[in-house]
Predict the 3D structure of the following.
Amino acid sequence: MNLAEKDKKLIWHPYTQMKTAEIHPVIVRGAGEMLWDENGKSYIDAVSSWWVNVHGHAHPHIAEKVSTQLRTLEHVIFAGFTHPLAIELAERLLQRLGGEQEKIFFSDNGSTAVEVALKMSFQYWLNKGIQKTKIIAFREAYHGDTFGAMSVSGRGAFTQSFNPFLFEVVFIDAPIKGKEESSFNQLKSAIENRPSEIAAFIFEPLVQGASGMLMYQANELDKLIAFCKQKDVLTIADEVMTGFGRTGKFFASNHCAQHPDIYCLSKGLTGGTMAMGITSCNRKLFDAFLSEDQSKTFFHGHSFTANPLGCAAALASMDLFDQASTWENVSRISARHAVFLKQIELLPQIKEVRQMGTILAIELQNNEQSSYFNTIRDTAYSFFLKRGIILRPLGNVIYILPPYCIKDENLDYIYLSISEFLQSVVSI
Ligand code: PMP
């Protein structure tokens, strides 16, 4: 039995219908934007391995720092103890987060970062003696796969088996083009109709990733956040995907004038090397948990909280973000995406092309519903994989979200392959 067959026999893969799944390529090595399988075939990782990788695979600086840390301290319980790397990471991240962010809470991944944010929000109010049980979220949001994170995500294919168990959320439209006014009005009436019930408003700032890279403008988000502030509703920016340079600035929230109360971070946090989540908050939030009364403590913690290896990877990644070359790459990719966008946006196969920084999304016309299960998805996935490019369309939305070190020639090859795919789509 070869490795791929063994995998098929033993392993249950995420987001995969195992009955019809093709044999998975066995990836044995990575460098920069490239991955290689056991047969030596190369792949351009145009989706940054589920949006996590920012500086390229097996980055020597990150590898060096993690391996040194591995020989020094691999892990220590984070209740009752701390360690130097967690402290340094908190300090450097808070500098980048700016605004009024003052505290860093560590967890394991994007979904746990969101769970923590939700639990902090509900308990913030309870600790002040007020029970608020509702969250406002965008109708097509995606915030993760645990129950709290699913609850605040749009109801659809990913949640349908679990809908009876999800807590009730007030969904509003995101302020995408054409819905700016209705989004604001829906938020306003949600808050005004239930003035004592709304604990917080959670959102993916500027780009709603899993729902198809839906984008909206910073000034529209500013209006929503400002209204929440005015009405004393907490605001949670889920920057799990948009953080760490994706949208052209360090955080998507940096495009906005308003500051959220809470940030959720993961994915690019460790440069995409290790699993780690962070929920940061401002003083107002933190202070509500300070008390002689033990019941006001935040009772949440994971075994691997603030894992030193994850912190080492995140600090090494921060070093790379301190280098001008990383930001030159972000600008270079953004500029090249913009040129390609112009070339294709008027093609009849295209419904809309959207771009924010290093994220380019191409929504195709189609006769089917724009759902995750759209058949263009499978056709496109195989088409690009055969050409050695990893692109995982979200339904009828093909998107590029590459590591920032991607070479121009590889970007050009991706653009060319997308153009070829678009030509083939005419006949689908
Ligand atoms: N929030 C957002 C905006 C995400 O895009 C994701 C993952 N794609 C998550 C949360 C969940 O992160 P994780 O997969 O690490 O649990």
Remarks:
- The radius of gyration is 22 Å.
